[in-house]
């Protein structure tokens, strides 16, 4: 008969099953986004298509890892429950979880750095973000090394460094991207409300992943000072799993929203120039001219939609 699980072991295995359910659900969402991209963005350059293929492969690999680990744990639980719970700490497939997440995050972060350069042309911001994300990837590799060598204290310390660097880079990148998008969509008489503009900018930035990284960092730091906290373990497991999928979702949402932005700029029904100051006596309105709050953003999105990698930069 299989040995009886302790309360902690049973809880951890149950949380892992919940984590896998989230993984499969988000993988389905990403598959829908990949299908939408394939059917609507055939004019993209070969480099952009290769980026999407690589993103699909990394997300699928992450889901396969979760499924295989669940299958191995279920098989081990039927023989020895304690061995099944220890798989999370001893089996090599579980030990590469962090590096898979770090690779997916860095992959998408480089995409958003490229996009930040396209909308800001600020080399300092892009350089700072790139350095932070590369440092985060290196710290993830170092953490994985200590995990494989069973150096718990070193792995815990480097895990904190990794999460802190990634969190800082995410906030710099997200804040810079939102600022540039809002600057391009400057307020005017008939523009959308500020709240709508901010929400649209958040959706076209890595803001969801940055928020998840913040929660993940806070929870992981709290767990290191707590002996047994079931709620924190649940949140930590889920945020660790959700984070790479949120990065992928943000990238695909950005790519799939470009066509709508371009169409809105090209087919806007407004009949006056929204860049004019209110009350100006010199009316320079033009029939059918798209509003100025969409023109700069649409120009950038067209560059990403039609141009080669150099024009996207």
TrEMBL record:
<protein>
    <submittedName>
        <fullName>Uncharacterized protein</fullName>
    </submittedName>
</protein>
<keyword id="KW-1133">Transmembrane helix</keyword>
<feature type="transmembrane region" description="Helical">
    <location>
        <begin position="124"/>
        <end position="148"/>
    </location>
</feature>
<feature type="transmembrane region" description="Helical">
    <location>
        <begin position="225"/>
        <end position="248"/>
    </location>
</feature>
<keyword id="KW-0812">Transmembrane</keyword>
<feature type="transmembrane region" description="Helical">
    <location>
        <begin position="92"/>
        <end position="112"/>
    </location>
</feature>
<feature type="transmembrane region" description="Helical">
    <location>
        <begin position="160"/>
        <end position="182"/>
    </location>
</feature>
<feature type="transmembrane region" description="Helical">
    <location>
        <begin position="50"/>
        <end position="72"/>
    </location>
</feature>
<feature type="transmembrane region" description="Helical">
    <location>
        <begin position="16"/>
        <end position="38"/>
    </location>
</feature>
<keyword id="KW-0472">Membrane</keyword>
């Amino acid at each position: 008969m299989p040995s009886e699980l302790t309360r902690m072991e049973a809880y951890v295995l149950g949380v892992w099953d919940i984590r896998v359910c989230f993984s499969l659900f988000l993988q389905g969402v990403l598959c829908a986004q990949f299908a939408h991209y394939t059917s609507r963005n055939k004019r993209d350059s070969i480099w952009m298509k290769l980026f999407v293929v690589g993103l699909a492969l990394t997300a699928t690999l992450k889901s396969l890892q979760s499924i295989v680990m669940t299958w191995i744990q279920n098989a081990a639980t039927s023989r020895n429950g304690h061995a099944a719970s220890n798989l999370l700490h001893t089996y090599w497939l579980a030990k590469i979880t962090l590096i898979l997440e770090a690779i997916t995050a860095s992959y998408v972060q480089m995409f958003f750095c490229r996009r930040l350069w396209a909308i800001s042309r600020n080399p300092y911001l892009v350089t700072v973000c790139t350095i932070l994300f590369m440092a985060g990837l290196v710290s993830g590799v170092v953490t994985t090394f200590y995990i494989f060598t069973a150096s718990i204290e070193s792995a815990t310390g480097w895990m904190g460094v990794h999460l802190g660097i990634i969190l800082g880079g995410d906030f710099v990148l997200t804040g810079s991207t939102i600022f540039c998008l809002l600057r391009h969509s400057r307020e005017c008489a008939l523009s959308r409300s500020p709240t709508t503009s901010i929400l649209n900018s958040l959706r076209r930035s890595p803001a969801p992943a940055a928020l998840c990284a913040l929660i993940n960092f806070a929870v992981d730091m709290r767990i290191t000072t707590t002996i047994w906290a079931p709620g924190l373990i649940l949140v930590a497991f889920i945020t660790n799993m959700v984070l790479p999928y949120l990065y992928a979702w943000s990238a695909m949402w950005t790519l799939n929203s470009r066509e709508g932005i371009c169409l809105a700029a090209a087919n806007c029904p407004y009949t006056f120039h929204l860049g004019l100051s209110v009350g100006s006596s010199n009316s320079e309105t033009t029939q059918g001219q798209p509003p100025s709050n969409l023109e700069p953003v649409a120009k950038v999105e067209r560059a990403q939609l039609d141009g080669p990698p150099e024009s996207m930069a």
